Amino acid sequence: MSIPFIKYSKFLLAISGLVTVISLISLFVWGLKPGIDFTGGSLLEISFSQTRPDNQLIEKAFVELGHKNVVIQKTGEKGAIIRTAFLPENEHQVVLKGLRTQFEKDGNVLHEDQFQTIGAAVSKQLRTRSVWAVFLVIISIIAFVAYAFRTVSQPVASWKYGVTAIIAASHDVLLTIGIFAFLGHYNNVEVDIGFVVALLTVLGYSVQDTIVVYDRIRENLQHRRNVSFSEMIDIGLNETLMRSINTTLITMIPLSALYFFGGATIKNFALALLVGIASGAYSSIFVASPLLAYVDKWQKTHPKK
Amino acid sequence: MAKNAKPVVSLTRTQVKWRVLWIGILLVVCALIVAPTYANKGVDWVNSKANLGLPRLPDKGFNLGLDLQGGAHLVYQADTKMVPDIDRVDAVEGVRDVIERRVRGGLGVSEPLVQTTKVGEDFRIIVELPGVADVNTAIKMIGETPVLEFKEENNEPPRELTSQEQKQLNDFNKAAEAKAKLALREVNNRVDFATVVTKYSQDEKSKNNGGDLGFVSANLYPEISAWAKTHKVGEVSKELVKSFDGLNIVKKIAERPATSTVSISETATGDVAITEYQIARIFIKTQQKSDIVPPTDPWKTTGLSGKQLKRAEVAQDSNTGQTQVSLNFDDEGTKLFADITGRNVGKPVAIYLDGQPISIPKVNEAILSGSAVISGGFTLLEAKQLSQRLNSGALPVPVELISQQKVDATLGVDSLTKSFRAGLIGLLGVMLFMIFYYRFPGLLSVFSLVVYALLSMATFKLLGVTITLSGIAGFILSIGMAVDTNVLVFERLKEELRFGKNLHTASEESFRRSWPSIRDGHIATLVSCVFLVWFGTGFVQGFAVTLAIGVLFSLFTAIVATRAMSRLVFKWFKEDGNMLFLGYTKKESSEVTNNK
Question: Residue B559's domain is classified under what CATH number?
């Protein structure tokens, strides 16, 4: 059994292109909801010993304390995560005291589980570093793939493997971003440092997936000389198909466990990885390889002088 | 690169057995490192039975991050504007030292992590306080900037005026004199005294009262009293009367005998001042040297400060049992202290904290040893607080808290349990999948996975890698990558078997041919990890470090461990692989009779 992937490559690339465009649109229309890592601000996680007051009541308490733009998110049965503007330590104590006088009645005790503040200087540093990290990872991965495929320059130059691998990985990153823009709009999901880390990991992972496919093509190129490049890609894809599916499933099993059982703090991080890695397996088959075939075709129709 | 010419490595049976044995030993060693408790129980049991005196294994826990054990992570920005460029690094290191002393001594945090970083032009101090419940107090203690100084008596005369200041002073006084003469002329021209007072007088107290000072004492107004003595009631001075702070035109309103209390004291000092005078005056202020040169402080700084204090401790006087605070200076401080005490024998030296004298001990003799005691009616608590405050010293530059993260211990434990459980579920899920799908080789990979998990965890422990929530996520992710290597090999194995190769050759080939893509794929992930580590914040580093260690060890376990086990056990099976390997039987293969 052999699936003729390249035969459908136009269709497959069109779907992937569409997905990318939709992701970009949702990114530009809704935008990502930046967390306090990037905007600066405070995050307060509290829990109550008996009952959690309604979000409106908590919000009202904050407004009375002079903090208007608060986002309140329920966690578990009795907890809440509250995001506010930057609270200096004295303000933090005032807020805590205010909440306690407001809600500590009839033996209901407020417990502060977590408090985090990020000042403007730190968030600025994190923003710059994030951009640099993404940029440098992309550059070094292209360089590495080009190096790994340096002996394979026929029929496609080695650096083009690197670029197509990165295009496929960008597809995965954009899809993940698009989904988080959607979640940010409809579910108040914020992106934080963990999200950037997930994206970078997805980049590495997606390229790793693509490398395995390309590597098979590379190996086949050295053995068989009587088939076209497109056919060669098809053979390579079919040979590595089960591996791609299984590896992805195997990686997603522990990540799903992390998503469902790992607790609130790590949930979005696990989700970003799940989306990105699933997309990574898809793109190494349906984006990276058809692209390689297209590069070959284009080279043949546009010969260099 | 897959080179065709490479011959299939063939090891002797003994070599293969040795390799598997080594892996077994490694597994046991790692297990002992990861969970020494059970082994120690065994050791105790043996010792109790046979008294061999076997040593117990070190029972050290994992190095848990703040998000898993609770605690606080504080980031301070140092304000180095006032410090010259070249001294900044030293100043910030000084801040680091002081903060570390404060959290160790004052808060009793046994393993604080205080480090400095430079971000662009900004210096930051990162303080990690594991297991601290009362972060609020911690922040207060760190943020306080007590300034500790040693001062000696100031005997220096006030400085002389500069010529410019002298000129300024003269000009001011000339103008004052001109103004006073103007007022005097008006008074002499029979203008009402009270009117001139309102117009000219600069004595705010008496101005609204027609210049009336009431009865004045000779002590406060010696010059005016002297004038009043020789003039009659109702008379106004024809000339200006100089007092220490200005020029006066005075009018004697009344006189009376001095009150008894005053007369006694003044008689006692030999002064004959038995009459008091009621005086009104027009006052024009003049400037004195003391108006320009600030009044001298009775204490002057000595250059000895909290910087040179090595340690302060609570001590007890061996003779009187009095609670004291003993001081120890560093080398520079010892020298300074010797000089200071040497020139101040018999005189007091003041210890100032935040500009307030907290103790003014008297120097009995020059102290050359660099140690001293402050004695003076301390209670034990006061002495403790004082020594703590002295130990904390002063921050060389002010700091500002720009970021904090505080995690409660219960939340930490909760996160740890949850993520541990998630990891375990994930691991079991992967194992089941491998056995279900890859059958016998899958079982081998499960063994490898156990080796992998224990090896990674032992490494975390030995290297002291801080395990954070993100670190556990990284480790969980690396489980997938570790198995991926096996998946690559086993898929290849199936293919080679389908080509009709025998089990031994197929196995060797599959390992050899999968190697380049395994290697390249892992490097791609490692490249990401390197930049993530560089990224620098706690969350990211925790993740990247465990992921990188995981990726490296997954190479080892898949290639070395799985391979060695395959070489050992594949011999036990039919040459062409069977149901256990392929999931189907090779019916088309003529020579095979399946035994399963």
Answer: 1.20.1640.10
A92 has which bridge partners? none
Q: Would you say residue B452 lies in a domain?
A: yes
Using the structure block, give the residue that is written with the tokens 């002590």. Answer: B219
Order of strands, edge to edge, in the sheet holding B241-243? B212-216, B275-285, B246-257, B241-243
Domain limit, last residue, from B374, B407, B440: B407
The whole-angstrom distance between A59's CA and the closest CA on chain B is 22
Clarify whether residues B132 and B178 are in a common domain. no
Average pLDDT of every residue of chain A: 85
> Using the 8-state DSSP alphabet, how is residue A73 labeled?
E
- Residues belonging to chain B: 596
Residue written as token pair 């540093």: A125
Spatial separation of the C-alpha atoms in residues B340 and B428, rounded to whole Å: 73
Q: Give the number of domains in chain B.
A: 4
CB B550 within 8 A of CB B478: yes
Bridge partners, residue B406, by sequence: A115, B72
pLDDT of residue B147: 62
For residue B517, the distance in angstroms to the closest alpha carbon of chain A comes to 5
Q: What is the ipTM of this complex?
A: 0.83
Q: Can you say how many angstroms the Cα of residue B345 is from the centroid of all Cα atoms in its chain?
A: 39
Question: pLDDT at position B432, please?
Answer: 92
Same domain, B546 and B420: yes
B541 and B577 belong to one structural domain: yes
What residues contact residue B344 under an 8 Å CB cut-off, 6+ apart?
B152, B153, B363
CB–CB of A192/A75 below 8 Å?
no
Nearest chain B Cα to A162, which residue? B524
Residue B314 lies in domain:
299-384
Question: B578: pLDDT confidence band, cut at 50, 70 and 90?
Answer: low
Task: For residue B391, tell me if it sits in a domain.
Answer: no
To the nearest whole Å, the CA of A267 is away from the closest chain B CA by: 10
Nearest-angstrom CA–CA distance, A16 and B576: 42
The reply to whether B76 and B206 lie within a common domain is: no
Domain identity same for B138 and B204: no
A211, A246, A258: residue with CB nearest B517? A211
The CATH number that applies at residue B85 is: 3.30.70.3400
Residue B302: CA count within 13 A, CB half-sphere: 32
Contacts of B469 in chain A (CB under 8 A): 263, 265-266
SS3 for A187?
helix
Copy the structure tokens of residue B20.
């598997």
Q: What is the mean pLDDT of chain B?
A: 77
Find the mean pLDDT for residues B57-81.
80
B251 near B188, Cβ under 8 Å?
A: no
Residue of A113, A212, A266 lying closest to B521 (CB–CB): A212
- Say whether both B76 and B179 belong to one domain: no
pLDDT score of B103: 75
* Confidence at residue B29, expressed as pLDDT on a 0 to 100 scale: 86
Domains of chain A: 6-36+122-301 (1.20.1640.10), 41-118 (3.30.70.3400)
- Pair (B471, B339) in one structural domain: no
Is B59 domain-assigned?
no
Report the run of H or E that residue A39 belongs to, with start and end: helix A36-39
Query: Are residues B511 and B543 both part of a single domain?
Result: yes
Percent of chain A scoring above 70 in pLDDT: 97
Cβ contacts (< 8 Å) between A216 and chain B: which residues?
517
CB contact under 8 A, A254 and B430: yes
Query: Which range in B128-137, B140-149, B503-512 is most confidently predicted, on average pLDDT?
Result: B503-512
Q: How do residues A105-139 score in pLDDT, each as one tens digit?
A: 878 888 888 888 888 878 888 888 888 888 888 88
Q: What is the dihedral sign for C-alpha B483, B487, B489, B490?
A: positive
- Whether the upstream peptide bond of residue B36 has omega within 30° of 0, thus cis, is no
Global pTM reads: 0.68
- Domain assignment present for residue B589? The answer is no
Q: Per-residue confidence at A221, pLDDT binned at 50, 70, 90?
A: confident
